[in-house]
Amino acid sequence: DAKTTQPPSMDCAEGRAANLPCNHSTISGNEYVYWYRQIHSQGPQYIIHGLKNNETNEMASLIITEDRKSSTLILPHATLRDTAVYYCIVRVNNEKLTFGTGTRLTIIP
Amino acid sequence: GAVVSQHPSRVICKSGTSVKIECRSLDFQATTMFWYRQFPKQSLMLMATSNEGSKATYEQGVEKDKFLINHASLTLSTLTVTSAHPEDSSFYICSARFPGVVTSPLHFGNGTRLTVT
């Protein structure tokens, strides 16, 4: 699995867009980028995933650079409930996901 | 709504006793489920892969005789922590994915917080 690098923590003002970066410079051609988040004392929640095209769903947008060496998760209008640890994971599939340390996102009122 | 249900959400047990945690997939059949453990302020660590109808595969360093996994049906996997000790106190989380496409996302239960006194 390709290694990912995320900032350990970020703050974002409520109502603003939260942009969470992830570097995955060793990603291979068949590896997907997955994003999950974990709200305190809960199980992780799937957010979005993509291979090379940008993706959008009801929760977020995923922007993957053309060379696929990095990506950004965008929460368009952050709310206090978006405070969580966000994990960027690069894998061929969803078998045996390995979680890194993620980014602790704090939404500021 | 939740697609993976985990029970119980919290359990306290005495040292030396065994505890069973259930993980159910709701409205879908999961031939494979995954069990994770999370210590305070740490990330999730994969413990084992639960395979319906066959033996679980354990990650390196996880004692299979201590953490018994049974996946007797397509919607239920159980993790039994045998002879629990205080160092087994942790947050245990299971996950499953919809069948068919290996790239489909994992769905996680809400975890079980085990406290061994």
Low-confidence stretches of chain B: none
Low-confidence stretches of chain A: none
Count of DSSP-assigned helices of chain A? 0
Rg of chain A, rounded, reads 13 Å
Count the strands of chain A?
9
How far apart are the first and last residues' alpha carbons of chain B, in Å?
34 Å
What does this structure look like?
The complex is a heterodimer of chains A (109) and B (117). Chain A is built from no helices and nine strands. Chain A has strands at residues 9-13, 18-23, 32-38, 45-50, 55-56, 61-64, 70-75, 84-91, 103-108. In chain A, the strands form two sheets. Chain A has a five-stranded mixed beta sheet, with no helix packed on it. Chain A is globular. Chain B contains no helices and eleven strands. In chain B, strands 2, 4, 5, 6, 9, 10 and 11 form a seven-stranded mixed beta sheet that branches. In chain B, strands 1-3-8-7 form a four-stranded antiparallel beta sheet, with no helix packed on it. In chain B, strand 5 (45-51) and strand 6 form a beta hairpin. Chain B is mainly β and 117 residues long. Classes of the chains: A mainly beta (109), B mainly beta (117). Chain A binds chain B through residues 32, 34, 36, 38, 41-46, 49, 87, 92-102, and chain B through 4, 6, 32, 34, 36, 43-46, 49, 91, 93, 95, 97, 102-111, 113.
List the helices and strands and how they pair.
The complex is a heterodimer of chains A (109) and B (117).
Chain A (H helix, E strand, L loop, with lengths): L8 E5 L4 E6 L8 E7 L6 E6 L4 E2 L4 E4 L5 E6 L8 E8 L11 E6 L1
Parallel strand pairs in A: 1-9
Antiparallel strand pairs in A: 2-7, 3-4, 3-8, 5-6, 6-7, 8-9
Chain B lengths: L3 E4 L2 E4 L5 E7 L6 E7 L6 E7 L5 E2 L8 E7 L2 E6 L8 E8 L8 E3 L3 E5 L1
Parallel strand pairs in B: 2-11
Antiparallel strand pairs in B: 1-3, 3-8, 4-5, 4-9, 5-6, 7-8, 9-10, 9-11
In short:
The complex is a heterodimer of chains A (109) and B (117). Chain A is mostly beta strands and 109 residues long.
